[in-house]
Amino acid sequence: MNTSDTPSNSQHAPQKAPTLWLVGASEGIGLALAGIALQHGWQVIASARHAEQNATLQTWRQAFAPRLTLLNLDVTEDVCESAAQTAWRAYDGIDIWFYNVAAYRPMDLTESTVADYEWMNQTNYLGAVRLLHALLPLSRQLAEHRPVKWVWNVSLAAYFGLPYGGAYSAPKAALLNLAEALAPELAADGIHLQVINHGFVKTRLTAQNDFDMPGLMSPEAAALRIFDAMQSSNAFEVRFPRGLGLWLKLLRCLPKSWSLKLSAKLLKKGEQP
User: Which candidate among 66, 81, 227, 237 keeps its CA 20 to 30 Å from the CA of 265?
Assistant: First the structure.
């Protein structure tokens, strides 16, 4: 699907269409996923810092009214509770919450600042924490009547810290660890928590990389995999592409003396030990 075009509205919405709150919906995977969900008759609340000003989302809102609601939200600010209440009221409940917000900048130690780490931690990790606390009491009540699912877009980068990407992968690893810790507790409340660990997707974030990205895929292809998982998979983790995922999982499992020697090969020439 070309996200610059209006998706076809030929399909009639099912009587009980799921409601999706997509946080991080202005471009890339999020925008593609919003379009796919609308094509399938879902009700979508699309959030981003400037969702209400996004040209593509505005076009879709006109085409799909009233099934698309736009809601501006900066997850680094103390507005998550009020935003969750607003999103919840849009369609009287949220069946699936998808956290897709990410910040990334590759850098070596001489380039990095404390502010870089704070920015990526606030966006990649603490934003999800703020929203989960805002949604928890509402989702618990809804789960007494129908299935509720939380889906967090983490990253294969959460498996192992690689050179120049630590400020991004460290909060992603924290988010994965948090999901592992919370999943059993949430399941007892009837909330299914699922994580998406994917590899390289062609977005403005990966456009910053100056190295080969194995398994690079389009946002539309990644969004289709995620949409399928939202509907049909009860797995805790959905991982793709297979090859890159296995390689990074191997790094995680190897003795650290071995895995660090392998990751050192990714250093730029002149920096390798």
Answer: 237
| The model's pTM | 0.90
Backbone angles phi and psi of 149, in degrees to 5: -135, 135
CA neighbor of 210 nearest in space, from 152, 264, 266, 158: 266
Q: What is the pLDDT of residue 269?
A: 63
Q: Is the pLDDT of residue 4 over 60?
A: no
Q: What is the pLDDT of residue 53?
A: 97
The pLDDT confidence band at residue 10, using thresholds 50, 70 and 90, is very low
- DSSP tag of 24: S
Distance CA 72, CA 103 (A): 17
- β-partners of residue 198 are 240
> Is the torsion defined by CA of 137, 41, 218, 196 positive or negative?
positive
Contact 113, 92 (CB under 8 A): no
Terminal CA-CA length for the chain = 45
Cα dist. 203→8, 30, 102, 136, 220 in Å? 24, 11, 11, 31, 11
Name, in order, each residue with C-beta under 8 angstroms of 32's C-beta and a sequence gap of 6 or more: 1, 3, 219, 220, 222, 223
Q: Which residues pair with 151 in a beta bridge?
A: 98, 194
pLDDT value of residue 249? 86
DSSP output for 77-134:
STTHHHHHHHHHHHTTS-SEEEE---------TTT--HHHHHHHHIIIIIHHHHHHHH
**68 strand-pairing partners:** 44
Question: What phi and psi, each to the nearest 5 degrees, are found at residue 203?
Answer: -140, 180
Strand pairing category for 68-72 and 148-153:
unpaired
Helices 242-253 + 256-264 axis angle, to 10: 130
